[in-house]
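@channel sequence for tomorrow's demo:
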Amino acid sequence: MRKLLKRVLPDHASVHNNRWLRPLGSTLLHPSLWHLNRHSAAGAVAVGLFCGLIPGPFQMIGAALGCVVFRVNLPLALVTTLYTNPFTIVPLYLLAFTLGDWLLGGGSHFVAPPEITTMAITQWMSAMSAWVLGLGRPLLLGLLVLANGLSVTGYLVVRGAWRLHLMHAWHTRQKKRRARNDKGATGT
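structure tokens (generated this afternoon):
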């Protein structure tokens, strides 16, 4: 798992050589932001899942700031925010609105989101922003609760999966060691 993540995610040198990120080099090149272990991977997934519900392009900025604060793996957190996209954001926000409305005791009215087919992308983004702001308190509360729930769940799942992987690898090594010892004992 670790090898796959290291192969897919950008490395320390690519950030160091990026001219746009050079002014932030001392902060973004901190070793803990690039180290990949059980803690940093689980924390990065938690940060990415939480920040993925932030509207628009601020997801990546929020995830980067969260990584700097919590000292977790930066590339993994940035990739994790991509679970929200134009296809998933409306259902997630609808879920957040429903959750927030339920927590506030109900009574809010949901308004359908604007359709993208009849307008330019900039007009649609403006209409989406107005739609989100019009949903108000239920949406805000629901987004906070949903983001926290996804974050905690993601953290626990990664920690558990990493532990299962380590236990499986340990058992595999034990079997190989026993097989070698048995082979060596019968061969002499």
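heads up for whoever presents: The mean pLDDT is 83.
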